[in-house]
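[audit] Reproducing an earlier prediction to check determinism. Same input, same settings, fresh worker. If the tokens differ from the archived copy the diff job will pick it up downstream; this log only records the rerun itself.
[audit] input (576 residues):
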Amino acid sequence: MVRETDKSHRKFAELEIGAIRKDWKERIRVALVYPNRYYVGMSNLGFQTVYHLLNQIDHVLCERSFLPEKNGCATDRITTIESGRPISDFDIIAFSLSFENDYLNLLAILERAGIPLQSSRRKDTHPLIVAGGVACFLNPEPIACFIDCFLIGEAEAMLPRFFEVFLPELLKTDKKSHLKDLAGNVPGVYVPCFYKTTYNMNGTICSFEPTCDVPDKIKRIFIEDISHIPTCSAILTPHTTFQRTFLIEVSRGCPHGCRFCAAGYIYRPPRFRSLYLLKKCLEHGASLTDRIGLVGAAVSDHPGIVDLCRPVKQTNIRISFSSLRADALTPELISALRQSKVKTATIAPDAGSERMRRVINKNITEEDILEAAETLVLNGIPNLKLYFMIGLPTETEDDVEEIIKLCVKIKQRFLKSSRIKKHIGQITVSLNPFVPKPFTPFQWVAMDDERTLKKKIKRVRDGLKKIANIRVHAYIPRHAYIQALFSRGDRKAAKILSLAHYNHGNWAKTLKSTDLNPDFYALRERSLNELLPWDFIDHGIRKTYLKREYKRALQGKTSEPCNVESCTICGVCKKK
């Protein structure tokens, strides 16, 4: 009998271009798991990059696995795409974690693989459970008791050294001793069982310290110069958000310093790839497909982006951008979008009022936003998506009302341009609850509760419902609350996650029945002097700098973008 999971894996594998299959003999075997469906995981360039990097190491074999498809049953095995083997047969099960809301899937996958959830209950014969990815860079503590070993850093810098030290035969005989070797000899490796957290009477953290000879702090490892290191799609498949699009990472990090954006801080300093390398990547991608996606937090900031796009005019290549600032829409970028037959472009005002954009350090004006909307429609891109956040620090009812007013102004410009083109498209307003994130200036702030967020969403919906050609989509406040719970939780938050797993993902039941107070983690304002669960990770950013930015936000003051050539304010870039 062929199981449904095996059928779906075969269906995916048959349509892939670029999958790697290695001989199992005398190799370290890694099952790389994305704790969500294939469609979601294979849309993630970071996941694909790790797959490629692992298979570049000769003595390592890496195969991929995902959360089973919905038509599977609860008894289905968790198997890999490449060989169909159970992930429990591998030496290492490595989770790639981008989103806190996938933590529940992580537990489900471990259980269905027949592996004890708690690392303390596993035997030496079980695979080593490793985790990495942006969620781990931020705060690994809520899942610390489920993971044997975290990799806090960029894969290009960490993986070669990790697999120099890692020895499967030692893992099978004395796992704890070998973990200590990894923690002591591989920078960026964090083994939770070697650290102890103590608490004050009010539930806040009193101390976090090692229990043996391992580093006091875990330093985030990163590649200082990415100009000659390509990061591109390893596998092309129609079963992703991007449908056979070859993704190229143009840059890493962002210079603009929006105060809510974790990626803008933990990937400092902002780094750009050389134009020469990007052209080579584009040529390679064009040999495989006619769709190229340029990825990065600040694609339009690349100094050579115009030169990169210019030759595309003479080809049938369709090019898309993951992010474009409203104040950076050059004729060349617009031309590339038009040639690629892009039907929808995204503008991210993030806030409705000029005051709120100063608070979050979003240095674009209302006129920038209006001009961008008008220009896009005039150039044949009929549909717009507007990205806003609600519940930002210091937000008032007037600020929420300004979201409605700005959307109306955009609609007026949109309508004027659409009449010239004799085609009226659609405006989609995306409302997203603000979630405070570690290592940002807003890591201390309180978060709006679900009731308040729902009220604000309703106000925007009501204000725009009578305006033709505008749709409002809102991220579910309960999901934002869960994200906040595990973004800022400590090790005790694992009890809530375990209970949710026991309740089969019923969060309403879980949040009512837990003996912990979830609001303590999700909603509470932190003291600037409080020891935070993630403070043991060293991203190079001075806490004094984050505090300064927080205070400037409350004063409505903006700050200059990163200047890696001469700036040492935040602490990441040291004096030359």
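[audit] rerun output stored. Observation attached for the diff report: The first helix runs from residue 4 to 14.
[audit] end
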